[in-house]
Structures
1.
Amino acid sequence: MYIKSARKWRRAISWIDRVNRGVVKTMGKIKALIVDDSSVMRKIVERSLRQAGIELEKVLEASNGAEGLVVLQDNVVDLILCDINMPIMDGMEFVRQVATMEKAKGTPIVMITTEGSEAHVVEALSAGARGYIRKPFTSEQVKEHVIPVLGNKS
Amino acid sequence: MSTETAFATRSEQEDWFPILVLAIQEVFEIMLGCQVKPEALSKLKLPHGEYTAMVGLAGALCGVLTVCCNTKTAGGIAKSMLGDTPESEEQVADALGEICNMIAGNFKNKLAGTDERCMLSVPSVITGGEYVFRSLADGTCLETVLLFEEAPVLVRLQLHS
């Protein structure tokens, strides 16, 4: 879409915002899994989700991909947010493994990472991730990338 | 050095200083909600390295990025990130490590052509001041001091020649 004027641009943004608010309103409380080796970052991601207007019924945490897989064996979640650079099992391998898990297949995964190259984005998306957020990030960016994937929850 | 890793000359690397400063400012502004600017090194008493976070860079860009500050400042950084008083010393170290990680990532993402050929290590944090840090990176050293809550934070990027 090519938007010529600032007014049309603002109108488009306001429309996207209304759609997002509508999605947030209708989706209800969700269960999320946050996979990051930093406990501080896990708290920040959780806070950003809340600031984005997403109601959280339960937040599960894992400090690497392998721990994340264990959590998913016992829990069904609506959303996974995952870092890439982690010890033991990195985020890319985790995404690939989730795609093979009957219980977790189709759960939207959004990567949140300092790795911002196009190659990383392409690799993550082709492995099964639905979104990609670069650190540092604002809660607005979380809203922009997470709400659309929740809207398409399969 | 092979052609693959010969990404930039020493003089080009010295020109990266404003990019490093911008990367630092963005991380502090977005994650801590505060604006910082570089201060003249000569005017400041450099921080005694009670907390030193480091992230290694390998590939097209090879070296180490360190963020160094005193205990009180590290606690303040963690508090700003969390929006609450940190629960433990571990959480303070974790927060500073993440800041270092984000500065390194943001910096390399700003250098066209580097991001895909440069990898970052998982951050490490040293606590306690009784140590001497020697990097084997023998090339350009870019360093800046900024003030966070009026206390100095030293950010240093040492690159391999």
2.
Amino acid sequence: MEVILQNLTKKFPSRDRKKREDVIAVNDFSFAIPDGKLIGLLGPSGCGKSTTLNLISGLLKPTSGRIFFGEDDVTDLPPENRGIGLVFQNYALYPHLSVKQNILFPLENLKGKDKLSKEEMLEKAHEAAKLVQIDDLMERKPGELSGGQQQRVAIARALVKMPRVLLLDEPLSNLDARLRLQTREEIKRIQQETKITTIFVTHDQEEAMSISDMIVVMKDGVVQQIGKPQEVYDNPTNLFVAKFLGTPPINIFNGQVRGARLYIGEDAVLDVQGVADQDLYVGIRPEGFLLQEDGPLRADLRGVEVMGRDISVISGHDALLGETIRSIIGTDNKVNLENATVRFALKPHKVFLFDKKTEERVQFGF
Amino acid sequence: MEKKKISFQSLKGWLYLLPAILFLGFFMVYPLIDVFVYSFEEGYNSASQTYFGIGGYNYSYVLHDNYFLQAVKNTFLLVVITVPLSTGLALLISVGLSSIKPLRNLFQTVYFLPYVTNTLAVGLVFMILFKKTAYTDGLINLVITWFGGSAVDFIDGPYWAKMFVLCFYTIWVVMPFKILILTSALASVNQQYYNAARVDGTSKLRIFMKITLPMISPMLFYLIITGFIGAFKAYSDAVALFGTNLNAAKMNTIVGYVYDMLYGDSGGYPSYASAAAIILFAIVLTITCINLLVSKKNVHY
């Protein structure tokens, strides 16, 4: 089911009595979510991603804008008539009901022509339970399950009615690191098996990047960028997106362009064609540094962290915004810790320029 | 060495417990045992501290005493009528209170007022409302006659009328506390359960029966148990409404009977009083055990 959001806006009245202005949680959000894809809504807390999810679910009414599921305008439909499955951040499993009763609960609500017989219900519940691999836990109470198992029950409960759209609100935030890795694969697998359009909300960029077909990066209620994870990572539209995606985070410098050459401090580090002379922000991904004895960028060497697969060189620079430069290089490089400075060459496609005022991306040729 | 340390530790523990133990021992445990002993001492005289013998005569006397049987009947009626009614009404009002927004605090205060009002003062007000005298029929009777009924003396009149006033009064007095507990129990149910139920298209009634009730069942159960115990111990309410000569008014309760046996006009019989008290204890214990058994299936902690 394709989900189309048209100029979706949600305002909340301000709690602060002195300020009469409304808080704009979601601002003019338009996007067509393609059928059968896994979409990650990504952003820092308070950016409006959960509000967007609640608007799609129908738990909140938009201030303006429309929502379509395929051809149907669902903007004015209550949640129960939209055909959605919703998994809550804390799962919201009914603690007094067994796993089986929890999964059966949505089916037992069906009335009229949709009403199912006991056998059909049980069969469907078992199917859903099997899909998330909890069919051996059906008689337990939620309190007797681990966090990951509870999460699966919540997904099974959301899936049992075969919703048109599955919505997940921070599905992994209550799990420990290892379980999180495992469960996110699981969500991907379930989504691919059921082919249900799935939208999930997260503040963890790694999580969103790893399983989404597409990610939507939001900030202060405004969509910053929409695209495939790798595209967004490789081609951020502005400084915020560049900073938000990637671990370790991107390194930001104050830089200058003079005569089509990019300067960081006194060092001319890169040829940039088609950029007028100006001050700007320079973002360099950690993997954009090459260790080179005569490299153009000089930095004060502070230390080296060996992480097995690769090593990260920690260094400092006067023009840097932030504490340290973190650059990741292959283990076949040797860093002489005796040296006070370390010199880097830069991979041009890992270097991004941003306007000082608008923080928008400045494209350059190389 | 190790052993000594432990005994010193436990000694310290006992020392901390001592004030409470002494207090409870003197004022709770000792009298309890004493009551039990009295109830088997036949013809005990508190002045001379003498008795004729030991046996079950006190129980047999009490159980054949018409006043006691009347008191048991009254008490059971009171319990059976007021506990379910007051709990049900309190639940209804709490659900109502938690689903309205404007003036909620005002209503909560209004509903809590009876709790902080003096029992005897309220009893007096009730008497004025319900009593029929030579000069006036009272406010309630005024309303009844407006609607075409005939005036009834609720305070000195027929048994059912008096029982009605007593039940009405009891319900009115115990409700505020129940409402207070239930509104906070309702407020503590996570909103997400309701959201989840809404997304699944659950009807209002089903949400209430399948989610709200089980979620607040521990509190509800607590209220029912304490409600039973409280109603069995009823006494002051009856006094407030019908005066101290409850036997004459046929409105006595078991606790009232115990009090009358000790200090009433026909009193001075600690043995009979003790026997009646033990019988009351047995009744309350049985009911509470039944409650606990029932709750095992229906209460979700």
3.
Amino acid sequence: MKIVVAVKRVPITGGKMVLTEDEQAIQTRHLGFTISPHEECGVEEAVRIVEAQGGEVVVLTLGPAEAEDQLRESMALGADRAIHLVSDEEWDAQATASALVDALTSEQPFDLLVFGNESADAGNYQVGIRVAYALDLPVVTGLKGLTVADGRVRCEQEVPGGRDVYDVPLPAVVTVKEGLNLPRYPSVPAKLRANRKPVDARPVERPTSKLEKLRLVVPEGQGKQAEILGHGPDAAPAVVEVMQKLGVA
Amino acid sequence: MNVLVLVEDDGELSLQAVALAQQLGTATAVRFDGAYAPAAWASELAGRGWDALVGPGTDRGNEVLAHVAAQLDLPFAANVTHVRGDDVTRQRWGGTLLEEARVHSERKLLTSAPFAFTPVTGPPQVETVTPELGDAVRVVEHIAPDTGGKVSLADAKVVVSGGRGVGSSEGFAIIEELAALLDGAVGCSRVVTSAGWRPHTDQVGQTGTKVSPDLYIACGISGATQHIAGCKGAKKLLAINADPEATIFAHADYAVIGDLHEIVPAISAELRKARPT
């Protein structure tokens, strides 16, 4: 079983969005970074499958030099090696998919290709689907459950009112959501091992964006003036009064 | 401009998509019959003549339009809040940040961000299509959730949510008690599910459930953008937090400052008192 997982480095945004002066990015000077949450579950799931069935997990990213941290985090979770397409610029979804396809060609044949349903930052909802078409593979998205057996993958997709089930042959592309599993905390030895695992870094040139980012804007409404109902338990009657006014109590 | 709009059966978000489509030009609406099969639905849509194809910013809307984008190799702007000519404003970070972008394509693919457009009144005329599925990937089974008879997080009129401030799995007893008194659902922040105090199905946030209750009660939740992305659809937000500087208060309509472990039981007691027994 060979599984490739695509991950993205994103900032941990905390409470407030602050932009850089040119309005092209979030000010990240004081922020940490992480693997986009859906994808962290993707790595965990791939590692669990390979732990149970044998094989290899390859993790793939397109991002700046610093995104190596997220590749190392993925390898601390249990991925075996990494491919890093290195670019400091932000790529649109179409160009990202195309670069990933180029990198994946040399990794074929694989059994499963895992993406996050959408990245935490850009939220384009399409990279995995585009890659599936380019490689002529079936794709199922938004998975909260996934079982690989007998050359097929049973996919449980979260929908309003339950789960829809798909059953597709391997090789296949799946996109997953947080909640699929609870990713492990890597042990110290696992982190040390991750530092020795191979990262294949390849510089890539960004093509022209067809969906071109002009600027970012922090939406209004992050600065409401809340009505203070009180301090401590003495506020309870005022709270119940509000509930009655809203018709919920 | 000739605009085709994909609608789903579940109403409001689709009517918002129709509103966006009508802003762009003359809109025709299509819905699909039978098993959900995104690639097959997309092929049907891709084969039609349109200048713009619009869908609702739902999981399925975004998925089907991404399939169309892949089939036709066109750019696709998901979760759009405004359109001006070739420029769109779209949501990033679950709507806690916006991006202004230019679409470099004659043919446009857009989904409408939930609640960004006023839905059209009255259902538009909708053509129902039964697509040729062939061997396309499709839904083969549906599993209904086991909610244990409780109201679901997504449908609840009141959501009582706990964050790091609740302190432990056991600490949620008082959150559950208040939620039960209000016929509401229990929610939580991402910190809580990562700590294993509650299942991920209770998580409200960008990567959890997005809720839109009449009242959202945030207890001991600091107000990270991850969480705000999930609860900003609430009509009213009451924040209970010991830290008067907590970011959550900047998103709240009502605030109570203090220890949730004292305040939440006091509210429950007051509710019981206010009710005829």
4.
Amino acid sequence: MSKIKLSVNQETFQLEVADDMPLLWALRDTIGLTGTKYGCGIGQCGACTVHVNGSPVRSCLMKAIDAEGQDITTIEGLAVGGELDVLQRVWIDQDVAQCGYCQAGQIMSAAALLANNKKPSDEDIDNAMSGNYCRCGTYVRIREAIHTASRFYDASREGTS
Amino acid sequence: MSDNLTNLIIKGLQGHKLDRRTFLKLGGISGAGFVLASALPKTANATDQPSLVGSVDLNAYVSVGDDGKIVILSGSPEMGQGIKTSLPMIVAEEMGANWDDVTVVQTSIVDTDRYGLQWAGGSYTLNMNFELMRQMGAMARDMFLSAGALLMELPKHELKAENSVVFHPSSGQSRTFKELVAIAYKQPIPAVEDLLFKEREEYRIIGTSKSQVDSLEIVTGVGDFGIDTRVPGMLYGGYVKSPSVGGKLISANIDEIKREPGVIDAYSIKGNGEPRELMDGIGIVGTSTWAVFKAKGKVNALWDETQASKDSWVDFEKFAASVDSPTGDREVVSRGNLEQVFADDSNLVIDSVYEFPYVSHMCLEPMNCTAYFQEGTNGAKDHLEVWIPTQSGPGFQTVAESVYGLSKDQLTINIKRMGGSFGRRTSSEYVCEAIELSKRSGKPVNLTWSREDSIKHDYFRVGGFQKLRAAINADNQLVGWEEHAIGVQQKGEPVIGSGFRDNAFPLVNFPTVRGTMTLMEMNTLCGPWRAPWSNTHAFVTQSFIHEIAVATGRDHAELLIEMLGEPRWLKKGDIRSMNTGRAVDVIKLVTEKAGWGREMPAGRGLGLSFYFCHAAHVAEVAEVSVDDNKKLTVHKVTVAADVGPIVNMSGALNQVQGAVIDGLSTMVGQKITMENGVIEQSNLHQYPVLRIDAAPKVDVHFIQSDNEPTGLGEPGLPPLAPAVTNAIFAAIGKRVRKMPLIDEGFTV
């Protein structure tokens, strides 16, 4: 067991975790942020995707103790100051979800993509999103939603407000 | 702990929730140049909350606050099929409510006397609840009209209700629901037989697109899934069962497990031998799901496997290969003189054998349940509270009574949103396991299966084989049709999904036909899996119809239409029987929309299929290309469906798009096998699923006939596989008769 400090969504949490406990379970069971989902535990479904220093990471594969000192953002931290991220808004607007269980991970992967690539092509989206499985098959809408969101990023960058 | 943070988010969201529709209109932000920044919602203050204090129940499903906010209950479980949105839309429509004023809340109790069915399945939830929802809405509207008549001193029959306003068209007078609610709830409750319903032309909500009522919770991570249940004092739990179903626990290293880090206690638990209730196992409670998962891995148990499954997929294959008769011993349907048409030398006879594997449900949210069993003290009764992601709350009431002797008044059942189900969450073993752990630990326990548990202890879509033969006369007409399923039985009865039923096209309507089965006894658990029977029967029959079209040189669509015959309901007045005219209509529409018959480049083809199930007529065309390395690209799938009037257009489209992609995912790579009773796959590395890069475009067209409205969770899936395999044949001339495609050398 180790005592660690985790910085999650710009808040610091002190916790005691088993040395091998994945970040996923520290978030869900120790800190209590259940938006990050357990799907497979072997890094193949992407439901547990969070940002570590801005990069998408499968939190089921990263040990909690290794996340100490890094900036972790979960789906609960994507809306800043009570304002939804563009992706979250488009996801609602275009009614992307079906069961919704994978969507936190989908959105976190999409957010990391758009942070680095404001105008992703279909191929860019495929590359960035192929690690996120959707059992309900909402891929068509996920692709459309990322394109829509990228238009808004683009519009705001051009200052057309 | 982050209670503060989570509470903050939830608090913020509750405010957003009410306002969101004023800034988030479906399709409203797709225009280029529209900037969101100024439209962001402010954190709401308390007065924006739907005040249940000061609100009144107009009936079991509808209550209205003195602020005019409307709460509509959702009684049916939500698993991603959209029922929590579509049923309240029907209520709001008949009520004359403004959808922006509506908040939908899941019923907090299971009470079928009050709320009706409260289960979901078979794609019939919408159909079975439509009338009740209309009544609830119309009842509420009637009470508002009565109140309006009183307040405006106008004849009630001259008043109308729209957008949460009662108005008098000829004079222009109006009163809002908010102004009327205090009077409305005192009005006499109209008798059901006196209710007036809207005509379809008057609909303003039904038929439009609404985002799911839980969309905001889903995208912000505060969704109400079962696995996220947190109760004060709660422990985390796990349960280890015999690797082959039916094994009895002899002994286990319980004392060692108790010493594992994070483990609070461990127990040997005796089951009742019913796999859908409680099997023998080792129960563990601990301080985190991770601690419990780790401890489960350390369990060393001795199982008595005398009565356990010894199933082997290889043995099943051998059994199927040993069956050489075109006719099986168990008859399902027989009509006309089939022997004669097959014996007639002037008829061409063609035959084929198809194969499809067991597949897993793979619900992304693993099986889980939270239970809190409290022993009654001082003469009070025992009480059980459960938080279950389940398709049927009433189903668990029955199990609680039979297994634990708990009556309805001793139960509190919280129905949680399901992270997918597809037929999986209809059993109660994951509930009983949680109950056992709570009983022994005295604490609330959140029991979560690992992904490996969820695959290995699934109730699979049953695999099987099927022989088909057809007789074709000198005029290239189909004159005889025979199917012989080689499937699976348990205790002498076919398992759910094995073979076919007598109401399946073309067995249901073809004049000279025989359907039989030969079954092998197997113990592997099977259950309903999205469109049971149909999901394999469509592949088999709709591929074979294409084989007949190819063999006779006829156009596939034209042959299908001929097989359907004169337009008619097969059983008049029964929407669960096929309407051949509607079947033809969807075939004609899909071929038109997909450009059926157009010239295709080499290596590219179109494939057609039609199927009727779950009261839905659905035809699909897949456009597929196959390269020299057998890499498959599904460019586009065009769908035409008739399920009557569409309630939520966005949800309906989503279900069909998803069913197409699910169907493709399943046919491409998924296969469950077993040896000596043990399932050989455990996680996604052995069970490949479709990723976004292989997802086709899906073009959906609805014929909104006067069919009764019905659901779309299942019927979009069955036609997909044969549409794709028929397209593969059109592209490269190879007939695929076996699933999954990767076993035939294809990749995506």
